[in-house]
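Sequence in, structure out. First:
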Amino acid sequence: MSKENSRLNQLSAGIKGALRISQTFRILAQTGFDWMMGDRPPTPTLLRQTFERLGTTYIKLGQFIASSP
């Protein structure tokens, strides 16, 4: 039974990961499309808005990048 639970957990993690990648790609593609269509805010504003749309994990990544020398 434990082996089955392990496989189900792996499958669930794989599906969640694929959905997260899909969501990330969709947001980045939409941002790129908006930029190509002429919606070009200053780069810092564009990055902040994109990180906000991507969610808290990416906001933390942005904070880490901003604090790096």
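Second:
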Amino acid sequence: MGRFTAALDLLGRAPSSFLSTADSNEGQDWEELEAGDNRPDAGSYDYWQKRAATYDQDIFRSSDEDHEGIIHGEIDAAARRAEKARELTKGDDGSHAVSKLVAVDAGCGPGLWLDALTKRFGRVVGVDQSPNLLEKAKVDHEHLLQSKHSKVELQTAADLGQPCKSEYAADGQELCGPSVPGTTHSADLVASFNVLLSPNKQARENILRREVEMLRPEPGSTLLLLVPSAESYRAVRKLYRKLGGVESGLGKYADYLYDHPDEEADNVFRVFALTKHYSKKEACSMVEAAGLECDKVLSFPMRWRFVFPFASDEASFLGRFIFVQNGSELSHSYLYLSIYLSIYLSNIYIYIHIYIYIGKEVVSISSHPRLENWSGACQCSAKAKPLCALYLLFATDCEP
């Protein structure tokens, strides 16, 4: 939700969780925040209203990082599932089927994914709780709003995490109101990128319930989520400390120097704002509670500069997505949950990557070291064999 409500990017925009004091535009340094403990909720209205002014500088833009087309591929797959389930016919250019498909970008923020959605869905509704972010979306995507070939609507929506008030659908089903006008049981795809970020568990559950209720209650509808990884945060923090913290030359990140067990028991971390992160098990439990079933895990690469600005753009690490299929009899939908900062790489692997860049001698690597078949056999690509072998010693899901 622009706000994301929160997190895996705050709906499409996860706050840049690793800003140094020099990079922060908040006007309050890390030491003050640490002493005063006045961290905002990463899913709050005030937080995203304020962040809108520096969004392009401070916030992770998931749409710019999908170099391998993973999210784009899932958007396309969602459209194809809906076309098949609804038995929609296509013209020679496929336009007839596309015109009947509906997508809701729940927590659209400045509209990072509107262009991609309009290529496969005839009607796209972007909703966000932040008027400031929606104004940015209108400016950045004026071409879509004025296009005769796509139908794009932007709506200011009340916080999707607020307490539910009973409403009823046309079929008598009780809903978590207030619902967003015109979205109940209407969407073939609900995309929600970095929205489930609030440290408030009930708020997250309310958001997820409202998003599920936006889906068409029949086979073929899809829910696509992007959320942050707890494993990733802990691994990066451990690496930062191991390399010497501030003395490492990577920058000043006070949030990596302190533990807060009372918060971290719930995988809530301080990335300027209090931001909910997810373990794989926790993410699965969340969606299963909503009537969904975890199916498989896929990888999603991210550049190191989103963690340490001094890292090379050529250095990347693995995130992951969790694909969840709804097994309930009432609603056959799909959930694709992306954990945008999940790395599951060994510290040694990361250590080598960083020092290839910041050492006195820059070592040239012709391609990004990658792991292949992450969710399956956990095999290494040929070019990544030396480093991957180290990784496998630490991996929790793979045998060396």
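Remark: The chain has one domain: 14-345.
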